[in-house]
From TrEMBL:
InterPro entries: DUF4221, Quino_amine_DH_bsu. Pfam families: DUF4221. This is TolB-like 6-blade propeller-like. It comes from Algoriphagus boritolerans DSM 17298 = JCM 18970.
Length: 382
């Protein structure tokens, strides 16, 4: 509790302090790794998890080709284990929308119909937990890199950041939707409890915007980063209450996508590409900093690549580095097509960013490729 109070105190001070100039951070590439994939592995490009264990460092991902979770040894760059999931029978997993490993032999899967399912590493189902909401339809749950399951002991937090009637809603309806749920997996009759936290009405003061967000956690706090809002939400795991919303603006995020009505043809894709927005928010436990990624809007006519391919892999990606109190340490803009969106994670050696962007000339679907990068001013173990 003392740690939580200290965190609230620090961020309250920062929220009242004047903005400082955003420093352009330089980075160095410590190492590059290349992990071969055999013909049975087709990675789902939105769900990756770093694992730090006594036996080494690993990367887990969802394999769409054979309905499995694959685990790779990062030190040796080799495949280490496959957790095969079943499509039929008593251990049926349903349609998997992401996962999270949270112990030495526990795999929690987001499934459709809307359930959380717990498996051991042999693919045997040990528990399942329906996710319902008496006030709003729960039509989709997931645990991807953008909204992974978060844990507090045996309590799990999940998110559904969607609206049911987006085009018929007004700003006054925003508060009617709760997007975050918690579930006690040790309860006799576990039920999802929806936290009373919604998008603020002023989110739409300039017009309607997509409600999606990404999140991460730090100790006893959850931090939410909306796609189309500079503010980061801070939520207490213990009380389930909103503690603060702090503006953390990237210098190149200036124009969000305002949706004026149902798009015609591919116009919505083009408008989205022309706009800026935020992407993943990651916490670096080894250096006690946050990384807030963002997309920079482009003119689709400036690229030879078709705009649908640009939409799948945004070409201009930036990154804010924040201290533990969400104060900006610096900013970095990656080169065009330098890294692959969504595919980054934090490890002991540094920040891993995928360099296997499909729009790069050297793209190779037979490998996972990462640069391990380090930023000036941060302290590393070696």
């Amino acid at each position: 509790m003392k740690a939580l109070k200290a965190f609230i105190f620090c961020i309250s001070i920062f929220s009242c302090s004047p903005k400082e100039e955003k420093i352009q951070l330089s980075l160095t590439v410590l190492d590059s790794i290349k992990i071969p994939l055999d013909s049975t592995i087709n990675p789902n490009g939105t769900t990756f998890q770093y694992i730090n264990s006594d036996s080494g460092e690993y990367l887990a991902l969802q394999n769409k080709a054979v309905h499995a979770i694959e685990i790779f040894n990062l030190e040796f760059g080799i495949h280490a284990k496959r957790i095969k999931l079943q499509k039929d029978g008593p251990n049926r997993s349903g349609e998997v929308n992401g996962f999270r490993l949270f112990s030495n032999d526990s795999l929690l899967v987001a499934s459709y119909p809307q359930k959380l399912m717990l498996f051991n590493f042999e693919g045997l189902k040990t528990s399942e937990f329906p996710v319902k909401d008496s006030q709003n339809d729960v039509n989709y749950i997931s645990s991807t890199s953008e909204i992974p399951f978060l844990f507090d002991g045996k309590k799990v937090f999940g998110a559904q950041p969607f609206f049911r009637n987006f085009f018929d809603m007004s700003a006054s309806d925003l508060g009617k939707y709760s997007h975050i749920y918690q579930l006690d997996m040790e309860s006799v009759n576990p039920e999802a409890e929806w936290l009373p936290i919604s998008n603020p009405e002023d989110t739409w003061k300039e017009g309607k915007k997509v409600s999606k967000f990404t999140w991460t956690d730090r100790g006893d706090s959850i931090l939410v980063s909306p796609y189309n809002d500079h503010r980061i939400w801070v939520i207490s795991k213990k009380s389930g209450e909103l503690l603060n919303r702090l503006e953390v603006k990237a210098p190149l995020v200036n124009q969000f996508h305002i949706i004026k009505g149902l798009p015609s043809g591919d116009q919505g894709i083009i408008e989205e590409l022309e706009s800026d927005r935020y992407e993943l928010l990651l916490y670096d436990q080894f250096r006690a900093v946050f990384y807030r990624f963002y997309f920079v809007g482009i003119d689709v006519n400036d690229f030879e690549v078709h705009y649908r391919e640009l939409y799948s892999n945004r070409p201009k990606i930036g990154l804010l580095v924040l201290d533990t109190n969400l104060k900006i340490i610096g900013n970095h803009l990656f080169d065009t097509h330098q890294i692959e969106p969504w595919n980054y994670f934090v490890g002991r050696k540094g920040l891993y960013v995928s360099t296997n962007n499909p729009n790069r000339d050297d793209f190779d679907e037979n490998y996972l490729r990462y640069d391990i990068i380090r930023f000036e001013g941060l302290e590393y173990e070696d």
